[in-house]
Amino acid sequence: MILHKRTWLGLACFGAAAAALLATVSTGVARGVDAGTESNAKAEVEAETDPALERTREQVQMLDGLYKNAVVSITTRYVAGQDEQPAIMVAQDIFGAMRKEGWHSAKLVDATGEPLDDANAPRTDFEKDAAREINSGKPYFDRVVGEGNDRRLLAATVVPVVMQKCADCHTHKKVGEILGFIRYDIPIK
Ligand code: HEC
Question: Residue 99 in contact with residue 143, Cβ under 8 Å?
């Protein structure tokens, strides 16, 4: 639960919107794959037996805080209305740069069935499964793929409508409802 505390401390500097985004996510990651006590125990066992996996999950949590705070901050400070460039454009630039440098791949994926851009619809099996899990109320969902040195963590963290400005453009959803998720694909090292 140390992680949780650190997140809340960090949030003191940011707006309520970023807090709302991150509160759900950090709880999800701290708990492990699924909600509930069974997976709580599972996550604890994994932490002891698979420290590399645990480190990678922490990395997801850190990146998630960085990306989401950036998007909320850019939206708050610079995006005045529907005609402006949305903060997702900056996020996509950074996703592209991180991927090019070989750090990780990240993508903003729709979970409403009505994306503003069809390119953001869930495509892979993992993205389709994640859309279902996120819509069923889980703030976080992940899966390990590959073997040995090629293991990767696929993870999804919920993206709700955190402020009215989001809904000004994403008009089919209201504040508090789910828009999508960030999908991460990170090497487990
Ligand atoms: C100025 C308008 C605008 C605002 C404000 C805005 N978005 Fe978007 N959003 C877009 C556009 C346009 C796209 C599609 C971008 C593309 O071509 O990939 C998009 C894409 C997305 C997607 C991917 C699914 C889809 O619909 O394509 C998510 C999830 C998303 N935005 C979440 C948010 C959140 C959360 C906020 C508030 C913090 C927000 N958006 C604010 C315009 C906006």
Answer: no
Ligand 1: residues within 6 Å at CB? 71-72, 75, 79, 82, 84, 86, 88, 108, 110, 115-117, 119-120, 159, 162-163, 165-166, 168-170, 179-180
How far is the C-alpha of 166 from the C-alpha of 114, rounded, in Å?
Answer: 15
Ligand 1 pocket: which of 75, 157, 170, 182 to mutate (most atoms <8 Å of CB)?
Answer: 170
Q: Name the band, by pLDDT with cuts 50, 70 and 90, for residue 13.
A: very low
Task: Tell me the C-alpha distance between 79 and 178, whole Å.
Answer: 21
Closest CA to 66 of 119, 100, 103, 117: 103
Ligand 1 center from residue 137 Cα (angstroms) = 21
Q: How far is the CA of 88 from the centre of ligand 1 (A)?
A: 6
Would you say 51 and 102 are in contact if contact means Cβ atoms under 8 Å apart?
no
Mind listing the pLDDT tens digit for each residue in 56-72? Answer: 999 999 999 999 999 99
Q: How far is the CA of 80 from the centre of ligand 1 (A)?
A: 14
Q: Which of 169, 178, 182 to mutate to test ligand 1, by most ligand atoms within 8 A of the CB atom?
A: 169
* Interval 89-138: pLDDT, tens: 999 999 999 999 999 999 999 999 999 999 999 999 999 999 999 999 99
